Amino acid sequence: MTDQSEVTAPTGDAASEAGPTEWHSGIGAPVGVGPWLDERGAPLPDDPRYDPELLAEGDRRNVVDAYRYWTREAIVADLDTRRHRLHVAIENWGHDANIGTVVRTANAFLAGGVHIVGRRRWNRRGAMVTDRYQHLYHHDDVAGLIAWAREHGLTVVAVDNTPGSVRLEETELPENCLLLFGQEGPGVTDEASSAAALTVSIAQFGSTRSINAGVAAGIVMHAWISRHADLGEAW
Questions:
Q1: Beta-carbon-side half-sphere exposure of residue 75 (alpha carbons within 13 Å)
Q2: Distance CA 62, CA 68 (A)
Q3: For an engineered disulfide with 182, which of 10, 86, 141, 187 has Cβ 3.0 to 4.6 Å away?
Q4: What is the pLDDT of residue 13?
Q5: Are 211 and 219 in contact, with CB atoms under 8 Å apart?
Q6: How many other β-carbons are positioned within 10 Å of the β-carbon of residue 232?
Q7: Angle at 181 between CA 204 and CA 166, to 5 degrees
Q8: pLDDT at residue number 154
Q9: Is residue 235 exposed (0-12), middle (13-18) or buried (19+ Cβ within 10 Å)?
Q10: Which residues have a Cβ under 8 Å from the Cβ of 68 and sit 6 or more positions away?
Q11: Least confident of 82-86, 122-126, 201-205
């Protein structure tokens, strides 16, 4: 049976949960801001969106300045009011190391969700903690993903440079869209390609046969953003 449950992130923003971007590398100034009183010199805010611990100790998380000192739950709630009708899926049959990069990019472009097809476990390091703010879904197989997409009115677009694909640069991506990527090496499986409404490829001009899956995901997501997003809402 296909598991389509949403994966919820752990709650809380305690320093003990620090992720790979919440540190000082020793090069340049520390990431983020220090304690509220040191930074603002003003009374502590009583807005419930703010985290008392972050106000007292500072906020070194990988978040934009507009969300400094906010709780994780408040950030997710605010993002949920603005998420795009763009979803991204990646097949994970062999623990693809690119999944973290896809999640991080999907977060940057405020995708509605990221779907992992196949193995549930994946290396989160490449996500740079952005998975805490992104809705993640798991599907045991391609059939489950396609059923979910149809139920939610999303057109499935596979991304691969296979025969029969159309050029991304000459194609209008649908607004209600689920972009489907294969894992590094074999690309999109035949089952996924057959189930997709269309397959797009990225124009290449060099000697390599393919583009890294994480990079390809960024290129196609940005193509969707360029056409359908309100750029006036970008940070």
A1: 26
A2: 9
A3: 187
A4: 41
A5: yes
A6: 5
A7: 45
A8: 98
A9: exposed
A10: 32, 33, 54, 59
A11: 122-126
pLDDT per position as a tens digit, 120-135 = 989 888 899 999 999 9
Beta partners for 30? none
pLDDT digits (tens, 9 = 90+) for 4-31: 445 444 334 433 344 444 545 567 777 8
Residues in CB range of 212: below 8 A, 6 or more apart: 98, 184
Closest CA to 64 of 31, 97, 37: 31
The pair of structure tokens assigned to 72 is 């994780």
Three-class secondary structure assignment of the chain: CCCCCEECCCCCCCHHHCCCCCCCCCCCCCCCECCHHHHHCCCCCCCCCECHHHHHHCECCCCCHHHCCECHHHHHHHHHCCCCCEEEEEEECCCCCCHHHHHHHHHHCCCCEEEEEECCCCCCHHHCCHHHHCCEEEECCHHHHHHHHHHCCCEEEEECCCCCCEEHHHCCCCCCEEEEECECCCECCHHHHHHCCEEEECCCCCCCCCCCHHHHHHHHHHHHHHHHCCHHHCC
pLDDT of residue 31: 82
Q: Look at the block and give the residue holding tokens 């001009």.
A: 205
